[in-house]
Design a protein that fits this description.
The structure holds 2 protein chains of 2 kinds.
Chain A (H helix, E strand, L loop, with lengths): L2 H24 L10 H14 L4 H9 L1 H21 L6 E3 L16 H23 L8 H18 L2 H7 L2 H24 L22 H29 L1 E3 L3
Antiparallel strand pairs in A: 1-2
Helix pairs in contact in A: 3-4, 3-9, 4-8, 4-9, 5-6, 6-7, 6-9, 8-9
Chain B lengths: L1 H21 L3 H21 L3 H30 L1
Helix pairs in contact in B: 1-2, 2-3
Classes of the chains: A mainly alpha, B mainly alpha.
Amino acid sequence: MSRRARLMFFAVAATGLAVTLGAGLAGLPSFGSQTSTYAAMLNKVAPLQRHVTDVVSAINFDYRGLDTMFEEFILLGAVAGISVVLRPLSDETRQLPADKAPERSIPPPSPAVWLLAVVLGSLLVLISLETFTHGTLTPGGGFQGGVVLASALYVVYLGTNYRTVARFQPALLLESADGVGASGYVFIGLLGLLAGTAFLSNVIGLGGTGNMLSGGTIWALNLVVGAEVAGSFAILAAEFLDQTAVIRTRRR
Amino acid sequence: MSEALIAVALVWVAVSGTAVVLTRDPLRQAFTAGFFGLALAFLYLSLQSGDVALSQIVVGAIALPLIVLLSLAKVRKDQE
């Protein structure tokens, strides 16, 4: 295609995009305008119906809980795909991690870094537990708490070395957290069918509004999502770390 | 007060987003992208969406830069 033809093609496409995007943006509610009817309604009924104070959690895990289930499986599929793509290939070998290889001497992290990692790592674990057990009360929930829990492992690696962090993340633990978390979502959904109502109905006792154990299935779903997301992100980091630290192309 | 906060957040997002585009070295870009993620989180927080802000912090400022850094380390090691 000649330069002229490509420019023509671009001009037509850009005009089409500008017109449709402009028309779409013109129809948006103005910045800072009142919230939608749906949002106003949920803000009113969610605390009464579901005994939660974080309405966003009620939407994600209850009113629109099915969407979140599919998102869980998108994450599971993505991480499984990454594990397959990043496996050691036939022309690659696993070697000693670079910081333990005999011909290289990399100074270990200073004690100050190590101390910071210990403090920060334990704080991250605490914050993640707080985030996904209080998903029904305050902003946050399974997803955010799960990623924070996985990031505690990154901090352990930054403060120590490959071997230490490998002890903290046995593949079996990470993979079962990932799988049990994802299937747990479906099993909690099936409770609704067992109780004789629809899939993912909130059939567990709701508890008192403002208590940690409140919101019924919303609370339980936050927990399984937390396990799945923590496992997923830890696997993700472990796969990339393996590629960087121990997997080498075999010398010919 | 809150409008001033939103204005600060929007300017921060614009500046740090431009900085990500203008950074040519991928290693430095991982850091500017992390700061851009924090700016976005601050914007969401100023618009009172705490849940989205938390997700943005954990993905934009932790997971994304980490994966970029590890990938860069892998590429450099293979070139040695």
